[in-house]
Structures are given as C-alpha cells and as structure tokens.
Design a protein that fits this description.
The chain is of the alpha+beta class. The protein is 62% helix and 13% strand. It is built from nine helices and ten strands. It has helices at residues 2-87, 125-175, 181-192, 211-260, 264-295, 308-322, 342-358, 391-395, 418-428; strands spanning 95-99, 108-112, 118-123, 304-307, 327-331, 337-340, 365-372, 378-384, 432-438, 442-448. A hairpin with a 5-residue loop joins strand 2 and strand 3 (118-123). The longest helix is centred in the first third of the chain and has 86 residues, at 2-87. It is elongated, with a radius of gyration of 45 Å. It starts with a helix and ends in a 5-residue tail after the last strand. Mean pLDDT is 78; it is low at 32-37.
Length: 453
Amino acid sequence: MKTNKKADKKIEKKDEKKKKQEKDQKTSRKNNHQKGRPSDAVRVTSIARRINLNSLARVFFAYAGMDIVVCILLAAIFVVGMDLQMAGGFSFAYFRELSFYTTLWDVVYTVTDNSGQLLYQVPIGIWLCLFRCGGFVLLGFQVIDLITQAFSGTAQVRRELRPLNQIAVRAQQLSEMAFDETKYHSLEDAITNLKVDAVENGIHMHDKDLQGIETALNGLLERIRASYKQQSQFVSDASHELRTPIAVIQGYVNMLDRWGKADTAILEESIEAIKNEANHMQKLVEQLLFLARGDSNRQNLDMQVHGLNGIMREVYEESLMIDEKHVYRFEESGNVQVYGDCDMLKQSARILIDNAAKYTTQGGEILIRVGMWKDGSPFYGIQDNGIGMSGQDVAHAFDRFYRADSVRNSQTGGTGLGLSIAKWIIDRHQGYYEIVSREGLGTRFSVVFPQCG
C-alpha cells in the first residue's frame, strides 16, 4: 500500500509539473505575441532602411558616372568637330587653349599648330552657358530622384518584404505552438488500427489541427483500397479462368491412364484436347502478363507519327490470309495520321477483328474503315453483321473476363481479356471508343485518337 501511495504521489507531481510547464509556455507565447510584433516591425524597418541606403548609393554613383561620361563625350565631340570644320583635319599635336576675361560669356577657344601659328580662334561662351544650364537641369532631376527615393524607398522595400515577413511570423508562431503528445499518439493508434480491406474504416480524429493529415491519409487509403480490390478481383478471375483448362487436362490425363493406352481413338481425342487446352492456357497467361505489365506501367510504347491507312491495310491483308471463312472489306479516306505505337495499334485492331469474326456467321462481312471523325480526329472502325450485343453487354464489353451469357458456353475459345487489352491500348494512346450494336444485326466499334500536332 505504501508503495502504491508513493507511486501515486510521483504521478501527481509529474502531472503538476507538466501543467506548470504548459502554463509557462502559454504565458510565454502570449507575451511573445504581444511584444513580438513591434520588435518584428523594427527589425523589418531596419533591414528595409539598409536595403534602401544601398540602393541610393548605387543610384548616386550611377548618376555621377553617367554625368562624367556625358561631359567627356561632349568635350571630345566639340574638339574633333571644330578641328574638322575650322582646320580641315584633326590632330593630337595641335595646341588648344581656353581664355576668358571676366565672365563665362567671354571664353575664347584657340588652336595653334606645332610652330605656334594660329589655326583658328572661336568664342564659345554662349555654348558653355547653355551647357551649364542643361547640366543644372539634369543635376536637379537627379537630386530630386535621390531625395524621393530616400524618403519613400524604405516604405516601398517594406511593402516588397511584407510577404517574407508574414512567412517568418507564421513560422515563428508554429515553432511556439505547444506540442501536445496526446494528439500524435492518438493519430499513431488510428493508423495502427487501420485495415485496408475494411470498406468503412478510416481515420476520424475530429481534430482541427490534424484535419489536413487526416484528409490526406484517408485519400491515400481510398486509393490503396481501390487498388487492393482491383488486384483481388483480378487474381480471383484469373484463378477461375485457369481452373477450367487445368481440370480438362487432368480429366483427359486420367482417362488416358485408365483406358487410353490401348484405345487409339481415346488417345487421339485426349491428345487433341490437351493441346487445345494448353494453347488456351498459354494465350490466357500471355494476356494476363500483358495486363499485369500495363497495370504496373512496365509496358513501354514507341510513340511516333504513323499513317493509319497503312497500319490498317496491313491488318486487313493479314485477316484475308488467316481467315477465309469471312468476307473482309477495307475503306480508307485521305492521308490520316496518328501518333502512337504501330505494333500496339495493330494489336488493338487485331483483337477487335478477331472478336468480330468469332461472333459473325461463316460468309458474313467484316468492314474495316479508316477516316476522320466528326471533330477531325483520326479513327478506325470495325463493323460486322454478327449476333450483336445487348445494352448490358455493351456497357461491360471491355471489363476483364466478361463474356455475354449468350456466348459464355459457346466454342469461341475466348478468354474475356482481349477487349480489356484493346481498351488498355486505346487508353494509353489518349483515345476513346464508341460502340453501336443491335442484337441480330451486328456491332460497330469506332476507335478515335487525338489529332496529330
């Protein structure tokens, strides 16, 4: 009991000490807030005055230097000009002299040669008087400018420094804020107890000081949850799609093990089925890897300007050679340029053509078009007269592993990833698609790309 009482007393002393420190900090901040503004103003005024004095000194020396240079230039122009006009040529050997009797109006400019012979003599008093008047006017403007800057420059510098002063004052206020450890411990506990897979879970501190951190963390959490949900769904769908061919292969292997060793028909059937399912699995895995690289931004594109007519014509000629069961027609118009990766554009078109061929009866027509869209953007279109799609199927056409109920159990051999890959390619090219489809009439895919240049 004594030990507990001593411990309680120690805790009470610590609490009292902490409260006293917080009280001292508040008092200190209050005093600093009351006294800090005048001292800050004096400090800023002193800095502004020094900056203004330095600026005045630079302006003064600039004016003085300019005046000296102007005087030298005018004197040189006068000397050279008078020699050329009166003596017929300029020479450094001439002896020049200024003489006057009583006033500046009486000044005479005399020039003689080396032998002392007079070359010319000109009264220049009126010009010197005019020069002196002009000099006084110029000096007057310069003095007025320096005086104006001396009186108003400090205030102007203070106005320019005001944003920096406000930043400094705010930084000082932040540095003097009381450090409340309980807030940060509460934030740490809230972050520790977070669960990424909990839909409704989030950070809710209800604290004004931590509101910015709370908003940023909740936004980050939402993005993590969306990515987590997408990855989970992707893995689940991939596992489901791979389960079927694996089960078929296992079934045929068991049948071979029991009866196929001596039965040639069962052996051939099993080998053919295993080959088909293995090819299906290989195609599925390649598509999964393509999408995984795309989701992680590891799928590089070689973006250049290409002729869309040439790209689609190659795909059209490939389709003629590969598929003899359908009628292919190609339409092009003008010189259509597109900025993109040539191989990726071909792959997107092949996917759409393959999709059209799967759901078009034998002998049906598939139209491949290239041209300019309504707004002048380049586009290509794939149109068939196959079974078409319902409105719900159109809305989910590019979803991963989505297949319409009418073709889910058919022997088309699709994986449900082809259109997803095509959409990824279109998105990476900053393009968009338009689908027009009617059940029993056919489907038209139009893929529109941004204009070049």
